[in-house]
Amino acid sequence: YGGTYRNNNVKTRTNSAFRISYGGSGFDIYDNLIWSWLDKASTGPGIELDKGSYSDIEIWNNTFKILNGAGIWMFDKGGTCKNIHIHDNVFDTVGQYYTTGGHFDASKYTGYSNGAITGAGFNGAIIEDNIIQNVKYGIIMNEWKYASSYSRPYKWIFRNNTLKNAGIGFRIDSSRGTIEGTGNKFSDITTFSYGYK
Average pLDDT for residues 52-78, to the nearest whole number? Predict the structure, then answer.
C-alpha cells in the first residue's frame, strides 16, 4: 500500500516491469522507460494490474516501447477496483504479440496481450492525454481473465488522446464493456472499432 515507481529504465522479458495485485492501492508510477525486443521469449506487459481490489493508481509520463505484450494490462476480479488514472504516457510499438521477421501474425491474437491498453471488469478507468502509435490494437476490452467474475457493465473514459497508425482502434469483446470518448485525435486507423460498438 502506498508505493512509488519512478525514474527507472526497465527491459522486460517474460513478465512486467511493475505488477500490482491482491488489493494493492495508492501507487504512483511515472517517469519510467519500459521496453523490450520483439521475440517469442519476450511476452510480458509493461505494467500489470490483476487479481482484483487494487485502487487509487496513477500512471503518467512513462514511455512504453517495443513490447510484444500490452503496454498496460489490467483486470478486475470481482468488480471492486477503482480510481485508475492513466495519462500523459507514450505507447509506441507495443502489443505486438508476437512478431517474427517484422510481420504481425494474426493467429497470435490472445485478447490480453495485443493492445496498447487492455483489460476488463472494472468501472471508471480514465485514460487521457496519451500518445498511442504504431500498434495493432489501441484499446482492448477482453474478458479472458477471470471471465466468471464479470457480471455487471463497466465503462472506461478515453479523452484527449492521440491514436495513430493502428490496425484497429478499439476492440470490445464483451457487451458489458463500453468506452466513452471525447477530444481525441485519430489518424491512420485501418478499422476504427471491432466487436461490440
Answer: 92
**Euclidean distance between CA atoms 193 and 197, whole angstroms:** 7
Tens-digit pLDDT profile for residues 126-166: 999 999 999 999 999 998 877 777 888 899 999 999 999 99
Q: CB neighbours of 113 closer than 8 A, spacing ≥ 6?
A: 43, 45, 68, 69, 70, 73, 95, 97
Q: Which amino acid is at 100?
A: T
Identify the helix (H) or strand (E) that includes residue 91: strand 90-92
When the pLDDT of each residue in the chain is averaged and rounded to a whole number, the result is 89
Burial of 35 (C-beta count, 10 Å sphere; 0-12/13-18/19+): buried
Nearest by Cα to 120 from 171, 64, 194, 62:
171
Check residue 106 and give its pLDDT: 63
- How many separate helices (H) and strands (E) can be counted in the chain? 0, 20
